From TrEMBL:
InterPro entries: Brix, IMP4/RPF1. GO terms for cellular component: Mpp10 complex; small-subunit processome. Component of the 60-80S U3 small nucleolar ribonucleoprotein (U3 snoRNP). Required for the early cleavages during pre-18S ribosomal RNA processing. Part of the small subunit (SSU) processome, first precursor of the small eukaryotic ribosomal subunit. During the assembly of the SSU processome in the nucleolus, many ribosome biogenesis factors, an RNA chaperone and ribosomal proteins associate with the nascent pre-rRNA and work in concert to generate RNA folding, modifications, rearrangements and cleavage as well as targeted degradation of pre-ribosomal RNA by the RNA exosome. It is found in: Nucleus, Nucleolus. This is Brix domain-containing protein. SMART domains: Brix (SM00879). One of its GO terms (molecular function) is rRNA primary transcript binding. GO terms for biological process: rRNA processing. Part of the small subunit (SSU) processome, composed of more than 70 proteins and the RNA chaperone small nucleolar RNA (snoRNA) U3. Component of a heterotrimeric complex containing IMP3, IMP4 and MPHOSPH10. Interacts with MPHOSPH10. Residues 83-233 form the Brix domain. Keywords: Ribosome biogenesis, rRNA processing.
């Protein structure tokens, strides 16, 4: 079983590396084509490979549109099969963290909550993979206050790390199944200046013009600080796809999720 997981992981990383290499070549080809069409000087980054790229341009056609990417492997069944989510906590959780995990479990349709006990992260991930779990959600706390959320998409990743604030949750969206037509629940992820506000409501129609919203909780703010391409048991070796660098002069001014 372990050898099979290692082999599948290597195949996935190889496909992603190939995808990155082909994307770089495609970008250079487009720059070369644009320069030739506009009769401009070639950009410096494509001059060395210009002749080889020009030969490749001869074989380009519209058939390359819509090629698959590693995202197709990560979320290829999204919208086809309902996600199977496992919710758990950090070790030795407080009663407040247990209650928060219970609320998270009730929030995601079809999810299950597992007591962490003394289980290590690799053991949890292997158990989830063996039971076809699509996402592992782990909530953390500091001094009894829930302040961390990790969403690990299985079997190959990515893994997103969030800091939670004001806890009174392509990675968040696919935690939920396709909504039913008669559903009365509304889940809101509102992004404002890179803080993701989470709200959970139910609604009912009072008449044909008015709708009454009722907040059922939990509510909190999230801030993404890291995305890794691997899963949690490979946390120390997985490639970091994106990281928020807090200790730089412009960190407070820059916005990554918000539209400028």
């Amino acid at each position: 079983m372990l050898r099979r997981e290692v082999r599948l992981r290597k195949e996935y990383l190889y496909r992603k590396a190939q995808e990155d290499r082909l994307r770089t070549i495609e970008e250079k080809k487009q720059k070369l084509k644009s320069a030739l069409d506009d009769n401009r000087l070639l950009p410096t980054e494509v001059r060395k490979d210009a002749l080889d790229l020009q030969k490749l341009l001869e074989f380009d056609d519209e058939g390359g549109d819509g090629v698959s990417s590693h995202m197709d492997d990560e979320y290829k069944w999204a919208g086809v099969e309902d996600p199977k989510i496992m919710v758990t906590t950090s070790r030795d959780p407080s009663s407040r963290l247990k209650m928060f995990a219970k609320e998270m479990k009730l929030m995601f349709p079809g999810s299950q909550r597992m007591n962490r006990g003394t289980h290590e992260i690799p053991t949890l991930v292997h158990a989830c993979k063996a039971n076809n779990v699509t996402d592992l959600v782990i909530v953390h706390e500091t001094r009894g206050q829930p302040d961390g959320l990790v969403v690990c998409h299985l079997p190959f990743g990515p893994t997103a790390y969030f800091t939670l604030y004001n806890v009174v949750s392509d990675i968040l969206k696919y935690l939920f199944p396709v909504p039913k037509e008669d559903s009365k629940r509304v889940i809101t992820f509102a992004n404002a200046e890179d803080f993701i506000s989470f709200r959970h409501h139910t609604y009912k129609k009072k008449d044909h013009k008015n709708v009454e919203l009722t907040e059922v909780g939990p509510r909190f703010e999230m801030k993404l600080y890291m995305i890794k391409l691997g899963t949690l048991e490979n946390e120390n070796t997985a490639e970091v796809e994106w990281r928020h660098h807090a200790y730089t002069r412009t960190a407070k001014k820059r916005k990554f999720l918000s539209v400028e």
